[in-house]
């Protein structure tokens, strides 16, 4: 399977769709009776209230989520190949994105984080374009607005704001205008939101938006250890990917090294920002899918022992299906 996706082949699109469906076989067999879906945060519904709970049946919800994931995988694959992030054209980023986006049962349904991943992909493309630009203030302004839009959909997305400055540290010499442009872009969206709240005599609710920022980092987490066993092969692949990347790190071009550093920080921020949501929701970790998929794709592209990398992906693939069914 991995060998097939190492090269660019139109047949891979059909195979990708088939794999994405197989990775959802458990939820198709045991379909939930009812699925709730919140498109935007409660504070943003005054601006745009879309009653999507009644618009989608459980089957439609799963199929729409599946379609979105496949589209995102193809976009992600194009971005990675366009900027030469893996060093050679391949279809592995799409395969690993679909796989990472199917790890846990909540990933298989429509969720705010699934929608936000469109913004994540857009941000990755803009980040990668920063390296060769002479002036990036306009890009950073756009990125600030993207973070604000993502925050309207899913509040913990606000944690991506520091990533803008991390990207400037990694890719650019210091320029205060570029740092300020991020804040201006972010504030622009929320300024208009504040005006809208003011017109509707609800300005007091606007202040409540920021209360989760004062939430203390939890010291006790209740996680089903049985369900998390599916993450074991993922961790193994990520560790092998890290060592593979480290092996070639200083032989790689500067842009590739900087890009993977940025993806590492994106992964860490996405992982740690779950506490900004009042109750832990597992679909939050879907924000980590793009950077994780990039590192896993790097391992599978440069691994030399075929039986090992094919077996690892088969174990991961089988584990996802097994934990859905049992």
TrEMBL record:
Transmembrane domains' residue ranges: 12-35, 55-75, 95-124, 144-167, 179-199, 223-243, 259-276, 282-300, 307-325
Record keywords, A-Z: Membrane, Transmembrane, Transmembrane helix
Pfam families reported in the protein's UniProt record: DUF6427
Domain of life: Bacteria
Keyword Transmembrane helix: yes
InterPro entries hit by this protein: DUF6427
Keyword Cytoplasm: no
Protein name: Beta-carotene 15,15'-monooxygenase
Record organism: Daejeonella rubra
